[in-house]
Amino acid sequence: MPRNRRKIKSSAKVATLLAAFALVVGIIFALTANGKSNKALSPNLPVVQFDQSQAVTFNGTIPTPNATTDCGRNQYGFIAEIQYVGITNTKITKHYGPIIPLANGLPKQMEASGVVTDSADGNNDFPFDHEYGGDFTFDTSLDSPYVALSQSAGSSGGAPSGIEHMEIQTGELPHLPTDPLTQSIPPGETWPEYATAAQSGIVPGFEPQAGDAVAAQGDWIIDCGHPDFHSEFHEATFLAFGHDTNGAAVVHAFYNPYIPSEIYNPNPNLAPQVNNPSNLALSNSKPLVPDFLVQSIVSYVQNKSTAPIIVPELIEGSTTPPAPFTVCAPSAAGKSNLSISYQFNVRPGVTVSETQDNATGCATFTTTFSPTYQTAPPQGETMCPVSWTWLNQNAGAYAQGGSINLQQTIYNDASAVLPQDKSLFQAILQHRIHVTCYNMMSSSISSPTSGVQAVSTVANQLYPIIGWVQAKWS
How many domains does the chain have? Predict the structure, then answer.
């Protein structure tokens, strides 16, 4: 009996091995038939993601943010601070604190892939550092190599673990060339009117939506205006995002060329000089609070001027290319013909190359900026008026349940410098304040179409790169 049992077990083992061998042969045949891969046997990869090894290398070591170091104080928050200490004693001088500051004081950009969990347009933001309207915001559930980017430096609250908040000004999203605000801003248009208009006329497909896979690059900062001092990508500089559309991966991508410096200079002609970073170091280039606002208003009084107060922010160009991003066709059982279509419009000095992997059903796109590449200056600089009433209401969002009267606070602190001229301070602060607005950014990029593979140089476009990719099996 024991011997017979061993024979039965041996026979079963042989049969199992033969079945496994037949399965392997079948897989090899399926993979090699006609020299094409069978997508049914390929992994179901994200619709879009960065080349992970290159993005992780680009990021380097991810430090732990510190609100006192990165913002200037670990309590109150940007703008809200002035209701406690007055504008001349503020330590939080910037809205967005660089977690890894570069030599010029601007934030190091970081990269991450993940899935968008929600998104929303915005027309109600802090206008001084928003030349393209309110922020388009979205939250991203980060893939595992990037989870450490999601942090809060405050004592409580913050985003859920692994969720990173990302923002880009709505007027920086690609707008249709037929949108009037891509050509000019009507005289007297207020910043709130401009920001509301920026929510319309966006090229279809170029707004990340919940459920989209996304590869994002942007300034990694602490939003110093929130009491939890959470990290964000703000501004986003590169976005590639998309989803499965009827069995095809459809991905839209573009590079936002502009970074708000949060440094202000009274000469509006300097504001759009994106290729002149030395403007940041000029003696009269200052953060908004306390220096720029107080010094500007004192200067108006000293010069006996009652002209409207202007607040031009210096804009910097971004020339950091993103890591290669990969677009993968969704699973399609039994189909073996991989079709990759794409259209990119690029500025002179920018190239996009593509490599295709039939085994995985993916195509990888690599963007290169030449050493001579120049950022195109923003167009149509206009000083948009904002009422103090609107500013106070808007700033109240930072007040943590309280209220802020910016006009009165500035008057109290600035007039203390020249107490004999209080009446002139009062007269100047009756005028609406004026902030920088630019024509909204536009693109004539085509809609996704099968069979197209093109990279075109468009000299007059502002985006270094903008386009789409479609990947599918048939």
Answer: 1
